[in-house]
């Protein structure tokens, strides 16, 4: 397996600088920090995939979607799961169509047809079912390939991904080698539920996206929740950050912060007190034990403030 890096074509670079990435992503509603913008810029120039790790709901998947929107590229998504194999990730043959073709051959045999003729036929392009990886490699137009939650697949499938991303080509025994005509911009996301191989990590640029700081999350809320006041946005993110500091099964993600802000806005709430927050905690938290823990903390904090 090759560790070679495809040469970057700076003449077809998508971005001029990290600053252009940052401003471009902001224009499509994604608010990156300098680290995110810098890694996206380098991945484009070096022709390398980006491995994006971090807690669930911090914007890893949305980053790939936003880059595709910004560049006008087609987004091709491979959603990873346990049991994902080559036939679902790369390609497979259309067995039903092949069977129909074989049955039709029985008629042709009376006219002197041969098995070698049909064998060449059923393992040809019309009988090939492309899956996301092959589709991204074969694409002639600009592509952003999103390999989502790569930590969910088995080691064997991870090795398949590594082989594809090392050379950006696929070998199909019946058809030959299919090489990429343009290098797709690749994002692999991971919630870090298992340790990925060193070989895969070495192949990628690494980006960790954590929960944003208070000011950045507030800006995200103001950008993504039309009509919310700065005061309410500030209260929302401060309460969420306080809840995240608790020992929870699942801390509220940025997407859940946005859901909570939209909920408060729909309810006509302009100021959040402990009672209001407690009554709507089910929007932020997904485990009853977490809701009870957060409600107790909010009650304690409110009591301390009122003294």
Please describe the structure with a list of short key phrases separated by commas or semicolons:
3 domains, alpha/beta, 307 residues, two-stranded antiparallel sheet, Rossmann fold, elongated, 51% helix, 15 helices, five-stranded parallel beta sheet, 9 strands
Give a written overview of the molecule.
The chain has 307 residues and is α/β, with parallel strands linked by helices. It has three domains: 10-84 and 135-208, 3-Layer(aba) Sandwich (Rossmann fold); 92-122, no CATH class; 214-301. It has 15 helices and nine strands. The protein has helices at 18-27, 34-46, 60-71, 86-89, 95-109, 115-122, 132-138, 155-167, 198-203, 214-224, 230-244, 254-266, 274-279, 281-284, 288-306; strands spanning 50-53, 74-79, 91-93, 128-130, 143-148, 169-172, 176-179, 185-190, 205-208. The strands form three sheets. It has a five-stranded parallel β-sheet with strand order 2-5-8-1-9, with helices on both faces. A hairpin with a 3-residue loop joins strand 6 and strand 7. Helix 1 packs across helix 2 and helix 10 packs across helix 11 (230-244). Residues 1-11 have low confidence and may be disordered.
